[in-house]
Amino acid sequence: MKKPVVQVIDVGKAFRTTRAVDGVSFDVRSGEIFALLGPNGAGKSTLVRMMIGMIPPDQGAIRWLDSDGNRMDLDPSQIGYLPEDRGLYKDQKVGRILEYFGQLRGLTVKDSVKAATEWAERLEITQYLNQKLETLSKGNQQKVQVAAAVLHRPRVAFLDEPFSGLDPVNQELMIELIRSLRNEGTTVLLSAHQLELVERLADRVLLLSHGKQIVAGTIYDVKSGEFGGYSLRLTYAEPFDEQDVFNLSNEATLDGVEIIEGRSIKLTLKNRSDVNKWLERASTLGDVTDFRGGYLSLHEIYLKAVNGQNRQCQPNMVPV
Fold it and tell me: For the domain with range 230-295, which CATH number is right: 2.60.40.10, 3.30.70.260, 3.20.20.70, 3.40.190.290?
């Protein structure tokens, strides 16, 4: 097993009457892509800010570890940070911005120039090096932000919404960039709302809601865990009786039934072992022309877990 780079132990943080983070514990391991997920206001940004030393926790501990597993002081030069709120100098040229951030993170003038050129090439923004940032599209500004966060080759990179503003082609470019960071030795902590992309990238995930951790583990762990499940999608030759579909929804072994485009249904099963039973049962609705099965996606698990948490939780209140 890979060694932890940072350990978060029973960490909590409150702002006035709101407990933003409530007893969260996990570790991030060397050379992995770790995804921190959750709805807006779940506590993700607060947690990251505590991890990088911007704000202190009210309770618990955050321990940074060296390659031998010994505790060490946080070294800002080993951290890359793409914040949720962007903050580059829009009236400055892209090349100058990247060189400045390289020097700010400990590179020499020569090395910062070299790194700016290299990362501009990797992110396909070389043609903009002599243009002011404000003249670039939102997507290309995002690329500059990412380059500024990682051009010094940090030990750990915190990337908050790295896909923001990117079209599908550039999302693929960002996926390959994040994978290359991991392959080159940088541990990546990622936060993003594009869950289909996270599912392709992450080695492990942690899902927060109302400041609490509710799902954690590898993608396989999450899909086979408490909020996981298996779904069947069946398409019929002719429209079916919707009352028959409604009757299926009362079955205890189903988590849900959805009618799709009039001739298809999606059954969400509580147990994968019930697949054959439900294929046989659903075939009584009509002639099946196509069926597909698979584990719930990370997107579906996210909705299931967060909606379940919302039903049982109110925002955590603490005394002023």
Answer: 3.30.70.260
